[in-house]
Design brief:
The protein is of the alpha+beta class and 281 residues long. The chain has 8 helices and 13 strands. A hairpin with a 4-residue loop joins strand 7 and strand 8. Keywords: Glutamine amidotransferase.
């Protein structure tokens, strides 16, 4: 359906990953070997927390319905700024129209969210799910995607106090409503969430066959594995990490797959994995 990338670490020019990597996000928009669709040209989004901003501040957003490979503004912007935490997303529309309000990431206060996947037969569930959004949050839903509804459901169900619990309750509600409507597999996808300090990356589907998700190895590990790449790795600080729909290069050991039904938590101490709505064997 889509491809996405989330970075956290020392301030970095986003173009380093979004444009310049061997298998960058822009290149994935043209050719995504691990994606459900090989081309993701139905718009894109870029969201970032400014380097000079106090942690927990509001992120900035740039959305466009242009294909990512064809947008000069994306190149100008990602080459001009530096950010310690940013999201980027390229879209393959699965039904909702191609418009800026349907481009990820989505934002509420200091939170950013993006999703690769879908809600099965969303049109059957939409009314029930939208009515479950807190009335104070409903006006902040500007587009028509199932992804934006998931985000606002999680906000309604406690995301700001406990991100994992909020997303858990939102997904459980989606599955409950879906099953009431006779939908066998209501939830599919990977999701990224941040408050400006931590990234939570979820991989989950009702079917247990979720979209792909990977995160990078630590920079020190990469230096040990590939000493010949020292000059290239100098672009990154020791705390640089990236979570991606698919690897940005083909180097063995550089990217590690996030297991099924898992949330990968990325903070100052590195990665931690926790089970997320694990299916019974």
């Amino acid at each position: 359906m889509c491809r996405w990338l989330a970075y956290s670490g020392e301030p970095l020019r986003p173009s380093t990953l979004i444009l310049d990597a061997e298998h960058s996000l822009v290149k994935q928009s043209l050719n995504s070997p691990l994606g459900a669709e090989t081309v993701n040209g139905d718009g894109f989004g870029f969201g970032w927390y400014p380097s000079d901003q106090v942690t927990g501040g509001k992120p900035a957003l740039f959305h466009s319905i242009e294909p990512a490979w064809n947008d000069q503004n994306l190149r100008e912007l990602t080459q001009a700024i530096e950010s310690p935490l940013f999201f980027s997303h390229v879209r393959a529309a699965g039904g909702p129209p191609i418009q800026q309000t349907n481009c990820h990431p989505f934002r509420y206060e200091n939170w950013m969210f993006m999703h690769n996947g879908f809600l099965g037969d969303f049109v059957k569930m939409k009314r029930d799910l939208v009515f479950a959004v807190d009335p104070s949050l409903y006006p902040h839903i500007h587009g028509t995607t199932d992804s934006e509804v998931i985000f606002h459901l999680a906000l309604s169900l406690g995301l700001r106090d406990d991100p994992i619990a909020g997303v858990t309750k939102a997904v459980q509600l989606v599955e409950s409503v879906g099953h009431e409507h006779g939908i066998r597999f209501p939830m599919q996808g990977t999701m990224a969430l941040s408050d400006g300090a931590t990234i939570w990356a979820f991989r989950y589907s009702t079917q247990g066959r979720s979209r792909t998700l990977f995160h990078s190895a630590d920079i020190d590990t990469l230096r040990e594995l590939y000493p010949e790449m020292e000059q290239r790795l100098k672009l990154f600080g020791r705390h640089a990490h990236v979570v991606v729909s698919e690897p940005l290069n083909e180097l063995p050991g550089a990217f590690l797959e996030v297991p099924e039904s898992t949330v990968a938590i990325l903070d100052e101490s590195g990665y931690h994995h926790e089970p997320f709505l694990a299916h019974d064997d």
